[in-house]
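Q: What changes when adenosine-5'-diphosphate is included in the input?
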Amino acid sequence: SEEMLIQTEKLSIAGQLAAGLAHEIRNPLTALKGFVKLMSLSQKGQSKYLDVMESELERIEMIVSELLVLAKPQASVFKRRRIEAILQDVLTLSETQAILHNVQIQPEFAEGLPEIDCDENQMKQVFINFIKNAIEAMPGGGTLRMFASLAGQTHIRVRVQDEGTGIPKEQLAHIGEPFYTTKTKGTGLGFMISKKIIEGHNGRLEIASEVGVGTIVDVHLPLPEQD
Ligand code: ADP
Ligand code: MG
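A: The predicted holo structure follows.
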């Protein structure tokens, strides 16, 4: 609808602005971080204020680096790729984090899946975000299942399923809004960025969640058109 179109346009202008701002903020931030570090070294850990400053600066840095990703999707490079190979790379990257949080990752990739046209780095970013969220939703550990299969004749479906806290209904509607987070150390940007990338691939994102049971994130990605 027209309303949605305006929304999307607003978001992309906001995204460009945010990315520009992030660039501007990065240099002074690096200088600040350096001096705070120097000060805390010379105080030999005596000032708790400096520790707070350091961790708050790290938080700003995290937000800024996630915002910078918003500037990148313009430079998409689409190539024909096996999604299982990309997911396998992502699993390797996520292994340490999973072990640290007592999470066991179980991949189930169907055999003989057709290749899709995608930007490999962007796809990795998407699933790194979803896996990170799944791990963070299971503070006591658990099993994270990851599926890849055909969805009808036209799409591949990748599913990330956790046994975590789940998402209350009233929160579900807000997920993917810029800066919406329920975590003290969250940025609230991961979902928005992932959604943007998936839309850039003409794909679709679905979340199903039940409090106390877990969350399922489904990504549908179109197969290349036959000709
Ligand atoms: P962040 O992880 O920095 O908070 P995201 O955009 O990745 O930002 O996620 C936004 C919010 O969505 C999270 O703060 C959390 O409340 C919710 N969320 C996302 N994924 C899950 C999940 N797998 N289980 C429970 N809650 C989730
Ligand atoms: Mg996240």
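Observations recorded in class: The helical segments are 2-42, 48-69, 83-100, 120-136, 169-172, 190-200.
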